[in-house]
Amino acid sequence: MEKETKETQKKAAPSSQAAAMRNDTIDLVELAYVLLRRWKMLVLFTVVGALLAGAYHQFLVKPTYQADASIFITNTDSVITISDMQLSSALTEDYSKILTSRSVLKEVIEDQDLDMTFQDLSKLLTITNPESSHIINIAVNCGDADMARNIANSLMNVGIHRIYQIIGTGEPNVIDYSESDSVVETTPGLKKYLMLGGMLGLVLACALITVRFLLDTTLKSEDDIAKYLRLPVLSVVPYYEEGKD
């Protein structure tokens, strides 16, 4: 019994030693060669990944549209002084917060008869203020182009009136209302999905091949014996496949 155990351990030793040697160092050249040999698998995974991403884009991704409107924050007097410009700059951030306040959003929901809460509406809005400017840009993103445009215009009208009530200064000036021809689709294009799906498929294939390469501890040639076990090869027994009659 002990003799059989010792023989089993001796047979397992070379494989274990080879595994340890291979885990210590990774031959990048050999790995690259393995990847090149599996080029069919790489191509297959790339194509399948691109097709799956394309199908996802065509059948599951809903289009989204963005409507933009903008207002200019300044005094309505005919003569604008430097102090007016400085005051407008200081109030721009306050105006942005008023535009996204709960009372303004609820009034927009009522005005447009929207079936959503003010929290839901807030998620559709993006209020930005370009650096060193007195302009407030309003962007609305949703799955309906007309709804996005109507919300942007309603928010601007309600917001301007609300700003005048709270701040008490002149109403902001409208630069652009949102129009039908200015609404743009923001859904990522099919090409982007195809490229992303193909890249993910390629990365997955490379990862699978690499893992299999690292876990493969078999010795396939006399060169592997000398390389991983550091033992001299004394002789080689050739293998001949028997022919079929």
Give a written overview of the molecule.
The chain is of the alpha+beta class and 245 residues long. The protein folds into 2 domains: 26-59 and 190-228, no CATH class; 65-185, 2-Layer Sandwich (Bacterial polysaccharide co-polymerase-like), CATH 3.30.1890. It is 60% helix and 11% strand. The protein is built from 9 helices and 5 strands; from the N terminus they run H-H-H-E-H-H-H-E-E-H-E-E-H-H. The chain has helices spanning 2-24, 28-37, 39-59, 82-99, 102-112, 118-124, 145-167, 190-215, 222-229; strands spanning 65-72, 125-128, 135-142, 173-176, 184-185. Strands 1, 2, 3, 4 and 5 form a 5-stranded antiparallel β-sheet that branches. Strand 2 and strand 3 (135-142) form a beta hairpin. Helix 5 crosses helix 6. The longest helix is centred in the last third of the chain and has 26 residues, at 190-215. The protein is elongated, with a radius of gyration of 34 Å.
List keywords for this structure.
245 residues, Bacterial polysaccharide co-polymerase-like, 2 domains, five-stranded antiparallel β-sheet, 60% helix, elongated, disordered N terminus
